[in-house]
Amino acid sequence: MLNYTTSEENYIKAIYRLQSADGMVTTNELAAEIQAKPASITDMMKKLKAKKLLNYQPYQGFRLNAEGFKVALMIVRRHRLWEFFLAEKLKFTWDEVHEVAEELEHVSNKKLIDKLDEYLGFPRKDPHGDPIPDANGKIEISKKICLSELPLNTIAVVASVGDQSSEILELLEHKKIAIGTKLEVKKKFEFDNSIEIKINRHPILTISEQLAKNIFVNYGE
Amino acid sequence: MLNYTTSEENYIKAIYRLQSADGMVTTNELAAEIQAKPASITDMMKKLKAKKLLNYQPYQGFRLNAEGFKVALMIVRRHRLWEFFLAEKLKFTWDEVHEVAEELEHVSNKKLIDKLDEYLGFPRKDPHGDPIPDANGKIEISKKICLSELPLNTIAVVASVGDQSSEILELLEHKKIAIGTKLEVKKKFEFDNSIEIKINRHPILTISEQLAKNIFVNYGE
DNA sequence: TTATTTTTTTAGCTTTGTCTAAATTTATTT
DNA sequence: AAATAAATTTAGACAAAGCTAAAAAAATAA
User: What is the chain B residue with the closest CA to A97?
Assistant: First the structure.
């Protein structure tokens, strides 16, 4: 496994994020994700193709090959271990953690990451509920869906919030729902698509359809 | 305090290291320190002068001004806190620590460093005995000298080794002297300039002049 | 099927940080 | 004080990673 520049790593990570099981990633999609112009994407795709990290035919989109995928998983591993460290040990709140981890993830010393992993007790998931790949790149599958699609009586972890407005944050704070909160859906009402959820031993909470569609959760082994 | 590139930070750090209380740093000196060509140094000095971090007149050498000094201290702070973390928490050995800290030191999030400092218990010195600047850039003075110059009965900490040959490392290992070892000189012999030192409650050790000249220690408040 | 729109790529420019080779300034000798 | 040597700076080139504007290809509409 060679070393890649911060910029290359950011492209690889973004493609990993965008590429679903089947589809190709397009130039414009990636440009939007990475906040760059399409021309810059084309340049980098040529470079990553030359480094044999992805399949790319002009005008046909691209996707990571096996090697690119492995590299992506190591970047994700670094990111999520640092996130865990920042929250668990340095007591950062979960909304602050991502930004700092974006920087730390590019320090690519393998021994550092493996020792950090050990120090943290080999965590399998970060507190968003996102799985952390192990030193060999093995990763548990877990699905991220919106709360309105969560099956009844399935414990899930709040991973992110769609709308980031202060209004929704106020409401979430009031209901004591934050990133990392474990919850399960106890009832669904067809009339208004509202749901009732349970958090630990707290009283039942009612969530409107609108709110449920803006809360994304992780669940599964 | 603005943000600087990794490259700028490496130059600032190196100038800080080279500039003694009085003197100017020269182009060639810095080129040797940083492993770059003199022409590259000149380029960067123009840039850092434009950013008002140092005094520089062509052909006359340069030195950090008050602002540059402050920036340097923050870089040193980050470096030494990461070193402390790597040794203390991740159980890196002291010879591995420097290289990794060279990378981590450029992650310049202020809150990260202040929280790391707190997490580590606000250490005042790294295990080389080098002082760690606090969040305001305050730093304890401590002198680094070679063991043969250390006054009698003064506790000091082994900070570095001059010669890095396997022969000296073998000898140091045999005598159980490592970076971070606390010791004091108990006797000096004029005949061959050999010295006798004491480490904690261990028996007295004899050190030859040749060896003493290759062991550098930190001492003082 | 042709025309139009959208997407993607190409061509060429910019900045950062490096380099080499040549020119210039300062220091050292004779 | 000239001549020579050493140190430093300038000039010009290059690679990385971004950009804009124009060209080309693909997709969509008429």
Answer: B112
Quick check: A5 CB within 7 A of strand D?
yes
CB B102 within 8 A of CB B14: no
**In this complex, which of B89, B91, B112 lies closest to A100 when CB atoms are compared?**
B112
Residue B184 lies inside a defined structural domain of this protein: yes
Task: Work out the angle at residue B88's Cα, subtended by the Cα atoms of residues B82 and B90, and round it to the nearest 5 degrees.
Answer: 80
pLDDT at B221: 59
Contacts of A89 in chain B (CB under 8 A): 119
Asked if residue B125 belongs to a domain, the reply is: no
Report the complex ipTM: 0.87
The residue out of A38, A64, A90 marking a domain boundary is: A64
Kindly give, in sequence order, each residue whose CB lies less than 8 Å from that of residue A38, ignoring residues fewer than 6 positions away: A27, A28, A31
* Torsions phi, psi for B10 (to 5 deg): -65, -35
Task: Show residues of chain A in contact with B86, CB under 8 Å.
Answer: 112
Nearest residue of B to residue A113, measured between CA atoms:
B90
CB B138 within 8 A of CB B116: no
Flag whether pLDDT at B128 surpasses 90. Answer: no
pLDDT of B164 reads 78
Using only C-alpha atoms, what is the Rg of chain A?
Answer: 19
Chain B residue at shortest CA distance from A100: B109
Q: Which of A58, A10, A61, A55 is nearest to A36 (CA)?
A: A10
Residue B164 maps to which CATH number?
A: 2.30.30.90
Q: Which two tokens stand for residue B12?
A: 């600032």
Which CATH number characterizes residue A47's domain? 1.10.10.10
Any idea how long chain A is?
A: 221
Q: What is the pLDDT along chain A (221 residues), one digit of tens a residue?
A: 889 999 999 999 999 999 976 689 999 999 999 999 999 999 999 999 999 999 999 999 999 999 999 999 999 999 999 999 999 999 999 889 999 999 999 999 999 999 999 999 999 999 888 999 999 999 998 888 999 999 999 999 998 888 878 899 899 999 999 888 899 999 999 999 999 999 988 899 999 999 999 999 989 76
Give chain A's domain count: 2
Mutation target vs A (from B5, B115, B116, B122; most A CBs, 10 A cutoff) = B115
What are the chain A neighbours of B81 within 8 Å (beta carbons)? Answer: none
Nucleotide nearest to B34 (CA to C1'): C18
- For residue A40, being part of any structural domain is answered with yes
Which of strand C's nucleotides are less than 7 A from any protein C-beta?
7-12, 16-22, 25-26
Residue B220 has pLDDT above 80, yes or no: no
Q: B24 CA to D1 C1', in Å?
A: 30
Last residue of a domain, one of A49, A64, A79: A64
Whether residue B130 lies inside any domain: the answer is: no
> For residue A28, what are the domain limits?
6-64
